[in-house]
Structures are given as C-alpha cells and as structure tokens.
Amino acid sequence: MELRNKKVVVTGGSGFIGSHLTRRLIKLGADVTVLVKYNSIIDNVRLAPVWKDVNVVEADIRNPDSLKKIADIRPEVVFHLAAYNHVGDSFYQVSESIDSNAKGSVNVMEAYQDYERFVYISTSEVYGLQTEVPFDERNTPYPLSPYSVGKYAGELYARMKAHSHKKPIAIIRPFNAYGPYQSIRAVTPELILKCLRGDDIITTKGIQTREFNYVGNLVDGFIKAAIMPDIEGTVINVGCGEEVPIRDLVTMIHRLTESKSELKIGALPDRDGEIWRMCAANQRAKDLLGWEPKVSLEEGLKRTIEWHRQYLDTYENSAGGLWQLGLSDS
C-alpha cells in the first residue's frame, strides 16, 4: 500500500511527533486531515508551514460526539497519537490522563472502523518495572504512571479490536524521542537551551541509561507500520536499541553546543523510583517493518541544536518579528 492520494487522519497532528508525521505525509502526497483541539494556527504553530495543505478538524478525543466528523472523512489510514503526554504530571492529573489515553483511544477506535490500516501509537513507558533489558515485546508490561496505564489500556483495546473483530490495527511502541519542536520540559531540549544560554547544568550522577531517537527515525517507523502487510494485532517496538547514560548525553550536548555552561554532574540526588535502564529490542521492527534508524544520535543532536538556535532567535529576540507582533495590540 502506498500513501499517495490516500485519505489519512492524524489525531494529535499538532503535537511534537504528530507534526513531524503530518509534514512527512504531505511530502508523500497523502490527503491529510489533522484532529486538533483548536482550529487556530496560533495554537498549532508546529503546523504553520503546512497549515494550508492540511484539512483541520476541531475535536477532543474525550468527546465522542466531536469524533463523528471522522466518519464524514472516511479515512483509509488513521494514525492515533493524541494523548495526555506528560508522565510526571499524570500523577496530579489522573482523571484527565486516563480519560484521554484510555477512554479517548477507545472513542477514536469506535468513531470509524472502515479503514485499511489503523496505527495505534503506544509508548515504551508501558514496560515500566522491567528487569530484562533490552525491553522485548514479549515482556509483560508493568506501567508505573497514570500516563502509561492509560496508554496501555488503549493498546489492549486496539489488540482486542484486531483479534476479536479482525480490524487492521498495528500497535507501535516508540522509545524516547528528540528533535525540533519538542516541548522544553523534555530532557534533551532543556539541556540544549541551558547550554546555549550558558546556564549551569545541574544533574544527578547520570548513570541511568535511556535511548534517544531522532524524531525523523520514528516517523519512518510509523509510515512503515501504515503500509506493511501482515502486521495486524502485532506490537512492535520502534527504537534504536542503543543505551546512552544521561551523563554522556549531557557532555555530548555540552560539546556540540560549544557551551560555557558549568557542568555539575552528580550535584542532585537520584530520584525515587528511578528506572535505571531503558532500551528497545528492535529485531521485530527490522524483520516486520524493514526499519532501522537512519540518523545517528550525534547527527540528530546537531540538527536539533541548530533548530534551537533559531528558536532562541525567533522566540526570545526582543527585536524579532514575533515580539513586535505581540506589541501591536490596540
């Protein structure tokens, strides 16, 4: 299956990863509709370059009535990314997190079912308390946050639909992402911006490991999940499988930014409940999707650092056009 001229719906299309996916789909020639909470370019600035090239539907996945518009579109492919997506805050916003990630996902899957492929974007966070590393799809998930509990519930519903109702649904578990347009609450953009500004970098010992996937690599995997045959009901990790200690990420970003920030690695205590190792087993993605990451960590960080330099010039430059626009109120 090719995506050119296909009707494609992307829920959460203005989010960090969703916006990258949306722009890629447009390049592939798909007829793209994005579901967003607000039909406003101001609220969906990540899509500004392609706003005129997408169909925009205002909907909230927690509201089944608003999702009836999907049936009017009659999409051939659905990518479901919309979610409450902050792990830490989900402990304080339990109801919203569960409503969005569990019930919201069910609402989307029930809103329209005559598609050729539905790609449910889960999360590596569902693995949670695991002792076997790398995390294999055959491992039993043990989610440790309301965010991941909700995402896993949505995943289970997707698997039920695939097996009990023979719906062509694929389930993807992406691992940690980074790249342009990511929220500055994530570790990579936070470190980059502090290094570019010359702020002190204060961390734990940083011996815990994560893997970091350039957003374009993940989008490659999502696209393949939409077009590859015989993967219905299958859970597939999309991750590079390379463990990186957090302290190594810190020093790499410090070097690539040529920062004058003082590094204070080990100045903070370790966090309670820390997951010490997180890494993907990705053989299934290689075998079933023909997917492997194309952009290395260093190359991806270089691209992301350059984007953040432009970000600072655009958003924090008092002489820039954005600030001047903000001063033009009556």
Work out the helix count.
Answer: 10
Beta-sheet strand percentage? 5-15%
Q: Could you say which overall geometry the principal axes of the C-alpha atoms support? A: globular
H and E order: EHEEHEHEHEEHEEEHEEHEHHH
Assign the CATH superfamily of the domain at 7-182 and 213-241 and 277-295.
Answer: NAD(P)-binding Rossmann-like Domain
- Strand adjacency order, main sheet: 3-2-1-4-5-6-11
Overall radius of gyration: 20 Å
Poorly predicted runs: none
Q: What class, by secondary structure content? A: alpha/beta
Percentage of residues assigned to helices: 25-40%
Describe the main β-sheet briefly: 7 strands, parallel
Description of the molecule:
The protein is an alpha/beta fold. The protein has a domain at 7-182 and 213-241 and 277-295: 3-Layer(aba) Sandwich (Rossmann fold), CATH 3.40.50.720. 37% of the residues lie in helices and 15% in strands. It is built from 10 helices and 13 strands. It has a 7-stranded parallel beta sheet with strand order 3-2-1-4-5-6-11, sandwiched between helices. It has a two-stranded parallel ribbon with strand order 7-10. A two-stranded parallel sheet has the order 8-13. The N and C termini lie far apart (53 Å). The mean pLDDT is 93.
